[in-house]
Amino acid sequence: MTSPTDTQGSVTAVYKVSGMSCGHCEGAVSSEISEIPGVSSVKAIAATGEVTVVSAAPLDEAAVRAAVDEAGFELVGKA
């Protein structure tokens, strides 16, 4: 997936995050991103470094980057 996809009033985007290596990492990233207003679900997968985010509207990448930084990881960009 290279761009956000609209699905029933929501937007799904997949981001690449470096540094995740375990379930705790997934939880930390998911927790921080889920605090961004409008986010309805977050699924982080350490094995692939991908984080799938479903939100009411497209997210500001700077907000996602700040959330990932707060969790202690680095946003590489969109997958």
Distance N to C terminus: 6 Å
Number of strands: 5
Mean pLDDT across residues: 92
Radius of gyration: 11 Å
Task: Explain how this protein is built.
The chain has two helices and five strands; from the N terminus they run ββαββαβ. With 79 residues, the protein is of the alpha+beta class. Strands 1, 2, 3, 4 and 5 form a five-stranded antiparallel sheet that branches. Helix 1 packs across helix 2. The model has no long low-confidence stretch (mean pLDDT 92).
Topology of helices and strands:
Layout: E1 5-7, E2 10-18, H1 23-34, E3 39-45, E4 50-55, H2 61-71, E5 74-78
Helix pairs in contact: 1-2
Features:
single chain; 79 residues; alpha+beta; 2 helices; globular; HMA_dom_sf; HMA_dom
Quick structural summary:
The chain has 79 residues and is an alpha+beta fold. The protein is built from two helices and five strands, in the order E-E-H-E-E-H-E. The longest helix has 12 residues, at 23-34.
